Amino acid sequence: MDICDMADQTIEEHVQNALRRMNLNIKGDGRQHTHCADCGAPIPRERRLALPTVNTCVDCAEAMEFNARVVGVAGRDTGAWWW
Question: 4, 28, 38, 75: which is deepest, by most CB within 10 A?
Fold first, then answer.
């Protein structure tokens, strides 16, 4: 499998996940999302009650926060040479 095939496969997976999320989530009427917008996993009722506008599960939210911290640190121009 070459890189183009892997890219096609990744795009297809994203499309299928998006279609699955569209079928699982209730949108446009102000009601809570019941499944994660990223992975499609069910969002626990307690989380939805605590954060009414939440649309991601705990694992995806933690991953986004971690990535934001890593990119935030790595994205700074510190003048250091990393290689």
Answer: 38
Q: Is residue 80 included in any domain, yes or no?
A: no
Q: How many domains does the chain have?
A: 1
Residue 56's domain comprises 3-73
3-state secondary structure 10-63: HHHHHHHHHHHHHHHCCCCCCCCCCECCCCCCECCHHHHHHCCCCCCCHHHHHH
Q: Judge whether 66 lies within some domain.
A: yes
Question: Within a domain: residue 26?
Answer: yes
DSSP 76: S
For the question of whether the overall pTM of this predicted structure is more than 0.85, the answer is: no
Q: How far is CA 10 from the centre of its chain?
A: 15
